[in-house]
Amino acid sequence: GAGVSQTPSNKVTEKGKYVELRCDPISGHTALYWYRQSLGQGPEFLIYFQGTGAADDSGLPNDRFFAVRPEGSVSTLKIQRTERGDSAVYLCASSHDRGAYNEQFFGPGTRLTVL
Amino acid sequence: QKEVEQDPGPLSVPEGAIVSLNCTYSNSAFQYFMWYRQYSRKGPELLMYTYSSGNKEDGRFTAQVDKSSKYISLFIRDSQPSDSATYLCAMTGNNNDMRFGAGTRLTVKP
Questions:
Q1: pLDDT score for B2
Q2: Is the backbone peptide bond immediately before A25 cis, with ω within 30 degrees of 0?
Q3: Chain-chain contact of A95 with B96 (C-beta, under 8 angstroms)
Q4: CA spacing 20 to 30 A to A30: which of A23, A53, A96, B49?
């Protein structure tokens, strides 16, 4: 079946602009995660959804970052007033559930460049 | 100090060599230990996961976890050029909240 998909694959924006990044998880997966991966680093946790609710947003770096998952499937990560330091690959992952260990399946990521 | 430490390399080996990758960690609550492979401009894909201490083998890959030393390893036997990628260790407790290492970039030369 289809894996996790993310759009756009690349996004170039100017400092101060607003961007939205989209994630389509694997059908039936209730848990959805956003990570940020800076160059030469491993993925860094941002936020986790169980169904429609953000169960853990402790990784969001500041209030310019916000994410939604209104129908418990597709999720959008929103970044306001982008800064050059926001440039990174934003990865989305989904799993069947959370709790104990459930394999997280990753999408290919959206490469965000803030000029 | 980061929760998970991993030498970023790069590591270059000839085809057929045995590759050893490792990570150390500080959080004793971690119970599940994973190795992901990430090709350039792709998302990470799970190679292996291990629960608690012990060894796990899958084909040419062997994962080892030593919780007493807070040290995990991945061994690749008979390495192939197709194994060239970045290898990420990751670990979590009971809440599936993963923490990743920085990744080791591996090149296997024909």
A1: 82
A2: no
A3: yes
A4: B49
Cβ–Cβ under 8 Å, residues A52 and A25 = no
Mean pLDDT over each residue of chain B, to the nearest integer: 94
Bridge pairing between strands A110-114 and A10-13: parallel
**pLDDT tens-digit profile of B52-85?**
888 999 999 999 999 999 999 999 999 999 999 9
CB B8 within 8 A of CB B102: yes
Q: Output the DSSP codes for B34-102.
A: EEEEE-TTS--EEEEEEESSEEEEETTEEEEEETTTTEEEEEESS--GGG-EEEEEEEE-TT---EE--
pLDDT at B93 over 90: no
Q: Do B32 and A101 touch (CB under 8 A)?
A: yes
Residue B7 in contact with partner chain A when CB distance is under 8 A:
no
